[in-house]
Design a protein that fits this description.
- This protein has 137 residues and is of the alpha+beta class.
- The chain has a single domain, classed as Cytidine Deaminase, domain 2.
- 28% of the residues lie in helices and 29% in strands.
- The chain is built from four helices and seven strands.
- Strands 1, 2, 3, 4, 5, 6 and 7 form a seven-stranded mixed β-sheet that branches.
- It is globular and about 50 Å long.
């Protein structure tokens, strides 16, 4: 389930297209980070972050996954996050979200740079969802 070079470039371009920080509210921002997700069905979904006080904002990957879920898809083929600095790795919360939405997403391809792509499971070693049937309680 590897991403082709063209698929990687398409995801990066989709994330880059919606990235761009802008003010919301009195002193908050949105769009500083963007993300693009390619579903296993081949569809691309995008999202932007919302930076608010009190932890009620959300990451760009969360917004992209929510966009995917609206279309009743749960399996991710590839994902990229993008900021003004370029490609950035998803945070731990976003990694966990992708794994919980569908355990098959542990095999999705995460673009970490123009030349490095890894499966999500490498960023979540020993993930508890990867051990079905084990008593975790």
């Amino acid at each position: 389930m590897t991403l082709s070079r063209a698929q990687c470039e398409e995801l990066i371009a989709a994330a880059r297209q919606v990235q761009g920080k802008f003010p919301v509210g009195v002193e908050f921002f949105a769009g500083g980070v963007s993300a693009a997700v390619r579903s296993s069905g081949g569809n691309i979904y995008t999202g932007i972050c919302l930076d608010l006080a009190c932890g009620i904002g959300f990451c760009a990957e969360h917004a992209a996954v929510a966009d995917m879920l609206k279309n009743r898809e749960t399996e991710i083929h590839g994902v990229v996050a993008y900021s003004k600095r370029g490609i950035i790795p998803p945070c731990g919360r976003c990694r966990e979200l992708m794994a919980l939405v569908n355990p098959k997403n542990l095999d999705c391809q995460v673009i970490l740079s123009e030349t490095r792509i890894v499966p999500l499971r490498e960023l979540l070693p020993e993930h508890w969802m990867a051990h079905p049937g084990k008593d975790i309680g």
